[in-house]
Write a structure and sequence with these properties.
Protein name: GTP cyclohydrolase 1
Largest sheet: 5 strands, mixed
Low-confidence stretches: 1-11, 211-215
Pathway: Cofactor biosynthesis; 7,8-dihydroneopterin triphosphate biosynthesis; 7,8-dihydroneopterin triphosphate from GTP: step 1/1
Pfam families: GTP_cyclohydroI
CATH topology of the largest domain: GTP Cyclohydrolase I, domain 2
Number of strands: 7
Structural class: alpha+beta
Order of helices and strands: HHHEEEEHEHEHEHH
Helix content: 25-40%
Number of helices: 8
Bound molecules: zinc ion
GO cellular component, one term: cytoplasm
CATH class of the largest domain: Alpha Beta
GO molecular function: GTP binding; GTP cyclohydrolase I activity; zinc ion binding
Mean pLDDT: 90
């Protein structure tokens, strides 16, 4: 099954850099949006806004310049036979809804059951950011994190849960602040072994209701 999945680095995700607009073109586009909103981009308070927005975009979308496989490339095998679950929980992330380009703010819980090799724990957080700092939908981001861990580390199992609030839902549209979306991807032992999944869910503090979901 995993062999048929698209690689998270599939070129469809990364636009051809040769076709990238210049900074001046990007700033001009922001001025158009300011005018579209009904304001005057030439007034004092807005004069530097386009360049600030573009600098912000460089942070918001830094993930396009990162190769998630490279982040996990350095692994360690001297682990004294450690063969229990490794969990990094409550990884805060900021992503951007690809439908409305407004923030998705949430937490990720990432776990794996190593097969001999482990990765530095901060790399799990960097992996989350590499996918978060792009235009996203939460379901895809969840799958990308899990699939990359599986592909690179080839562990016995992977579990990823994302919980996030979507500002496209809280600040516009149905205006439901406080609603959070939960997505998960369980692979290997996390999918097949109920006790592994239960252990993960109890570590990250999720109710047993979750233990029947293995999307
Ligand atoms: Zn949206």
């Amino acid at each position: 099954m995993s062999a048929t999945r698209n690689s998270p680095n599939a070129s469809s995700d990364i636009h051809d850099q040769a076709d990238r607009p210049s900074r001046e073109e990007a700033e001009a586009a922001v001025r158009v949006l300011i005018r579209w909103a009904g304001d005057n981009p030439a007034r004092e308070g807005l004069i530097d806004t386009p360049s600030r927005v573009i600098r912000s975009y460089e942070e918001f979308f830094a993930g396009y310049a990162q190769n998630p496989h490279d982040i996990l490339a350095r692994t360690f095998s001297e682990v004294q036979g450690y063969d229990e679950m490794i969990v990094l929980k409550d990884i805060r992330f900021e992503s951007y809804c690809e439908h409305h380009m407004v923030p998705i703010i949430g937490r990720a819980h990432v776990a794996y059951l190593p097969r001999e090799r482990v990765v530095g724990i901060s790399k799990l957080a960097r992996l989350v950011d590499a996918f978060a700092k792009r235009l996203q939908i939460q379901e895809k981001m969840t799958a990308q994190i899990a699939d990359t861990l599986e592909e690179v580390l080839q562990p016995l199992g992977v579990g990823v849960i994302l919980e996030a609030t979507h500002q496209c839902m809280s600040t516009r549209g149905v205006h439901k602040a406080g609603a959070s979306m939960v997505t998960s991807r369980m692979l290997g032992t996390f999918r097949d072994d109920p006790s592994t999944r239960r252990e993960f869910l109890s570590i990250v503090g999720h109710s047993s209701a979750f233990s029947v979901s293995n999307s």
